[in-house]
Amino acid sequence: MKAKDNKFFDHAIEKLNEANQELYRPEEDMVSFLVCKNSQYAIENYLKGYLLQQGVEPGNYKTIDVLFEECKKFNKNFEKVNLSEFDCKAQSMDERNCNEIPKVSNCFKIAESLDNFLRTEKIIV
Q1: What is the set of domains in the chain, with CATH numbers?
Q2: Contact 52, 5 (CB under 8 A)
């Protein structure tokens, strides 16, 4: 099971890096959709990786909100991660889109804070 959850974490880190690279392009060159989607995929994969580490099959959970709630059942410290600014956490991945720069910036910050949390908790290194 360890190898599979590492794939989720590896994919999350890759998507977070892609979002970061896109976010820091000049505004006229930035594709906000890519920042948004890559940040969302990072968040989703971090949560799925954590659940898989706990022996839970994450495919049963279709939204970030549900994944996040399930993660909190195993580790109350997940409450330190603030998803309140993440507007599309209750939608499935196929339905989530945002193109406004402040919103995509929020998505990226949330993905980055989740990455930092998982590193602080020594869940990923």
Answers
A1: 2-120 (1.20.120)
A2: yes
